[in-house]
Amino acid sequence: MAGKQVAGCLIGILLAVCPVLAQQHIPKFAQRGLGRFIYQTLNDTSSTASSRVLVFPTAGYAPETSLEIGVRAFSLYYAKDDTLVNRLSEIVLYGFVTLRGQFGAQLENAVYTDKNTYYLLGRARYQQFPLLYYGIGPNSKRANPSLVNSSYVQFRQRALRKVVGNLYAGPEVDFQSLQGVSFEHTDLAAAELPLGGRGSTTLELGVTLVYDNRKNILNVRKGAFFEAAVLRNVLRTENFGFQRILFDGRLYRPLGTRNRVLALQATGMFINGDVPFNSLALLGGENTMRGYYLGRYRDKNLLAAQAELRWLPFVFSRRWGGTLFGGVGTVAPTVSEVQLNRVRWAVGGGVRFLFFQKKDVYLRADLGITREGTGIYFSLGEAF
């Protein structure tokens, strides 16, 4: 959960960084075993074109899950090892188990084929893991959220083809299934459960248009990204009839020197019809409105924006950097009901460490602060 997760292995790696970097020769501890692996990872001197795989354990704790142990693997590569024409592709695999028998796995992909002709962007996820349900709308209360246990499956994929220049278009599919649902620690009567509170299965099909001139999606120093999509649920067996429109716009500008970057993002989601609660627009998480639990606020319509100032790296360091960020966002049942006094804010900062020197990819550790608390996040690559 946001604010309570700790990636213990990452902290250990970071603690090992300073003495390693202080050495001009290979230290004794780095000549064999785990020490050698850590040293070679932190001092990667392979060519930019070489594919790289990073695997590390993770750990976390939250009252509703107890201790969580997992493994995260990243694969970074250029199609045909061509760094001049092709863009950096990323595949991420993550799996975890908890001491309470909960588990899950997730595969994310942002893959460019040769000459960037095709762009495959999506995720597949399965988990038996509790989520917190605070209610629907911008006025949902923080106190006493319901604990929702369920089995959840999602498959979302965009298969995009280059139309001209940096413009891509193609079909999108989003399948979601929430089964075995039970609400615990709740004051809701059975008749008051949200739509989809007894389970749901939806299949959204649509079209996506993307403009993307970014070279390195994990650390963008200059460029723009814009995505617009229209989807419709075609699986009507459970009477969930709805349409979804979404957009995501991002702009990146260098400031003065190559080391400083201003990143801007605006996102929106607009849903019309009868949609299950798990498919509503969600505010919060590790990428947008950091500091809020993902789904702290949910509704049919969402608007959010954020800005981030990045020093990658600091002027006094070769590999350490940092960021400052802030964002605003809100949800509402209809666009006309969006209210300025219901807009939430989130601010924060983070530390960066240049993990893959040749590929210009940083490990990030962020602290998000909101009026309700904080969230701590660890990952490879920037939030957006």
From TrEMBL:
Gene3D superfamilies: membrane protein fhac: a member of the omp85/tpsb transporter family
Record Pfam families: Omp85
CC annotations in GO: outer membrane
Coiled coil: none
Domain Bacterial surface antigen (D15) per the UniProt entry, residue ranges: 193-354
Cell location: Membrane
The entry's keywords: Membrane
Stated name of the protein: Surface antigen
Organism, scientific name: Spirosoma fluviale
Phylogenetic placement of the source organism: Bacteria, Pseudomonadati, Bacteroidota, Cytophagia, Cytophagales
